[in-house]
Structures are given as C-alpha cells and as structure tokens.
Amino acid sequence: MAATAAAAAEAPLIEAVNVSRVLDEAVPVTLVRDINLAIRPREFVAITGPSGSGKSSLLYLMGLLDLPTTGEVRVLGRPTARIDEDERARIRLTGLGFVFQFHFLLPEFTARENVMLPMRALGRLSEAEMRARADEILASLGLAEHAGKRPDQMSGGQRQRVAVGRALANDPPVILADEPTGSLDTRSSEQVFAILRALVDERGKTVVAVTHSLDMAARMDRRIQIIDGRITADERTRQSGVEAGHAAPGA
Ligand SMILES: Nc1ncnc2c1ncn2[C@@H]1O[C@H](COP(=O)(O)OP(=O)(O)OP(=O)(O)O)[C@@H](O)[C@H]1O
C-alpha cells in the first residue's frame, strides 16, 4: 500500500485524457472511447477484459504506437498530440520499454545483440559499454550463460526474458507489456511475472500489462477493466508490496 499511496501523490508517467480511437473504415470501428486514466510511478497495473474489448488498442495508444482520433496521451508529462513521429520514437526509445506476447527477437542475433538493439538506436554508448550493459541486464534476468545464444537455442521462457531485457535496454521508467506470459508454460510464466514484479518493487519501474489472467491481475497492484472499449472498473487489487513472491528467476 505504501508504494501505491505514495505513487498516487506523484505526477503521472502516462495520462490519457478523453482518448478515443476510431478506425476510419467503411463502417467506422471504435477501438476505445472516452478513456481517462493516469499511471503513476511504481504502479504495477493490469489491463483486463474480454477478447476484443480494446486492451491492446489502449496499450498501443499509451505507448505512442498508435494515435488517438480525439483526446490526448501524455507520456512523462509531455503532451504528444502535436509532436512528429521522430519525437514520438525518441520518447518510446528512452521512456518506454515494450514486451509483447511473442518475443519478436531478431533470429540471427544473439541474446546480447538483441538487448543491445535499442541502445544502438539511441546511440549514446560505445560498443563496449553497450555490450557490458547488455550482459549486466541478461545476468540480472538469470541469463548470464545464454548471452551468446541465438533465440532458437533458447527455451520460450528464456526468449521472453531476453525480450524483457531488450525492453530494459535504455533503462526506461515504464514497461508496457501485451500478454507477456500469454504464450508461456506455467513455470516460465511465473518466472516472467516474478521479474516484472521485482522491476516494480526493487527497481522502481512502472509496469502496465495486458493480461487475460485474473489470477495474475490480482497479484498486480491495480486492475483497469476494459469492456467494449470503455473503462468499466479501475481498482486497487493488492494492499502491500511485501507478500509477493520475489523468487529469483532460474536459468
Ligand atoms: N486494424 C483493425 N481493423 C479492424 N478492427 C480492428 C483492428 N484492430 C483492432 N480491431 C478490432 O478492435 C477491437 C479491439 O481490439 P484489441 O486488439 O484492442 O482487443 P483486445 O482486448 O486486446 O483483444 P484480445 O484479448 O483478443 O487480444 C477488436 O474487436 C478487434 O477485432
């Protein structure tokens, strides 16, 4: 509760103000409508709802991967309605890390090289610094001995942990995850969940994750429910950061 209550007093990292997104088809498709929300520092937020309700659409809008038709998304206090795609890309690269249901690692690259990609795109570190940072991130995810392996030489759970490592590459304050455990077995799923939990509790990150799992949502701190593109519930789901399992990820 302490972390969540303290977070409530801080400036939001992501805000949606009257956000709607309508696809301009022959028959217009409304993905989300009238969304108002604020995501604050160190929150671990679940976005839940039935299939096709607009969860991914909302996450993409929050991550500046899509633009609202009306309303505005603010990221790290910055209004984003009138900035160009280069600027949006820069905010994504420094402020946000993305994890998807499928890892989307580049198959011809090693785990280390995949984690280095966002650092390379930002261009702030030397080759040696990028390499050292990637290895440090992989070690923190229990993957030290897998740094030189390509995705096809790793298990599904290991690949998804590399994808988390890639999301952490530029040390963004916010991680946005779309069904991050959706294609994993129970054990790997628990490992990835424990990593996300620890990112919030131990490293002060903010994590927003779309999930079908109500059990998982109950172990996060807040649940935003979407039905037919609208927020139908927004509630605290967990009272304390103490009881969560912080099991170290296995190799
Ligand atoms: N490009 C598109 N063209 C047409 N319809 C779309 C498009 N993108 C999304 N939709 C529709 O918009 C609705 C919301 O989609 P979205 O992927 O956000 O839902 P979701 O809650 O994440 O679903 P799921 O849980 O199945 O992943 C769905 O009915 C989907 O079919």
UniProtKB/TrEMBL annotation:
Organism (species): Blastochloris tepida
Listed Gene3D superfamilies: P-loop containing nucleotide triphosphate hydrolases (3.40.50.300)
A cellular component annotation (GO) from this entry: plasma membrane
Keywords of this entry: ATP-binding, Cell inner membrane, Cell membrane, Membrane, Nucleotide-binding, Translocase, Transport
Transport is among the record's keywords: yes
GO terms under biological process: lipoprotein localization to outer membrane; protein localization to outer membrane
Residues annotated as domain ABC transporter: 14-251
Protein name per UniProt: ATP-binding protein
Family the entry assigns: Belongs to the ABC transporter superfamily. Macrolide exporter (TC 3.A.1.122) family.
One of the record's GO molecular function terms: ATP hydrolysis activity
